User: Fold this.
Amino acid sequence: MAARFQWACEDPIAIQDWNTGLRLVEPRTVADVPHCLWPRLSLPLRANLRLFGTLFPKQMKKYQLCVFAGR
Assistant:
């Protein structure tokens, strides 16, 4: 089955108010690679992430993965 799920939330903090027991831990963009993983990325990828994060911060924030945890 080819199924596609697309969903967006302007304010991820609002999900906490839905009484689901979820708490926003951290929103991350593709440029927010944890420091422990940074050395594993290729030099061109690290350079591009820094460049695009600096030149286009608003666009980078449009694609976020929000990490939630149960209360």
Q: What stands out?
A: Residues 15-61 form one domain. Helices lie at 43-55, 57-61.
